[in-house]
Amino acid sequence: MPRGFNFLDLVGKESIKYANLPERYVKRTGEQIAWKTPRGLPNYLPRTVQRKKFNFSIHRPWTSEFSFDNSRNKSYQKVPIEPIKKWSFFRGDKVEVLTGRDKGKQGVVSLIFQERNWVNVQGLNTKMIKIMKNKEFPGVNILRELPLLVNEEVSLIDPSDMKPTEIEWRFTEEGEEVRVSKRTGRVIPIPNSDKETIDYKLPSLYKPGDKDTKKEEVEKITFKPELKTFEMDIMDKMGIKEDRIPQKTYWY
């Protein structure tokens, strides 16, 4: 693995924000660390093996489907991805499809795959897929939304006239960075639904309850380190005294 490599650099910020998962968990599940012994060396010498190239799809990097797609016996051709300096599409945005059978239709962005410059538009660019098919069951047909490229296949809608437009980022007099339509010069606000996460609706609606550990309890020191074994600690707390005479041992 190259020096300074960080798996989180490959994962889009929108993905981590929506999942509301700790960064250390995302990094640990995505790295897929395996412990192997080099050939010709004793079995007690492990080394870390990590995958260098990942194939990103509609599966999130911390899921079992992502691990299966990126197992060590699979190889993929590198997919060129145009780097986007400033991400401009968010969940809840109104967009218009520019290609395919749904060309000209407008919909709402439901999912974002920043690793591949993809977005899913609710109810558009769909495909019928059969799942759970086996010898005894014919399967179930479901309508699945396929991703669209933000660079070429979708365009953001200007809420003032509901027409597609290009945008640029500007700063207001208060110092806030906003999206502005190049065609009309109007501000396109970021939808509130972009703040929604997978475990609760909005961070502003979350209130600490009885199940949450209070700050005072977390900061309370409840462990006092001592030079004792676990057995000695238990014996001291239960008032058990050691009266057995240990056998003599000899070191050669």
Protein architecture, described:
With 252 residues, the protein is an alpha+beta fold. It has helices at residues 13-19, 23-31, 64-69, 215-219, 230-238, and strands at 34-36, 47-49, 94-97, 106-113, 118-121, 126-131, 140-145, 148-149, 154-158, 163-165, 167-171, 177-181, 187-188. The chain has a 6-stranded antiparallel sheet, with no helix packed on it. It has a 3-stranded antiparallel sheet with strand order 11-12-13, with no helix packed on it. Strands 1-2 form a two-stranded antiparallel sheet. The mean pLDDT is 84.
Summary of the model, kept short:
By secondary structure, the protein is an alpha+beta fold. It has helices at residues 13-19, 23-31, 64-69, 215-219, 230-238; strands at residues 34-36, 47-49, 94-97, 106-113, 118-121, 126-131, 140-145, 148-149, 154-158, 163-165, 167-171, 177-181, 187-188. The longest helix has 9 residues, at 23-31.
Query: Rg, please?
Result: 27 Å
Question: In terms of per-residue confidence, which ranges show pLDDT below 50 for 5 or more consecutive residues?
Answer: none
* Total number of beta strands: 13
Helix content: 10-25%
SS content category: alpha+beta
SSE pattern: HHEEHEEEEEEEEEEEHH
Kindly report the average pLDDT value: 84
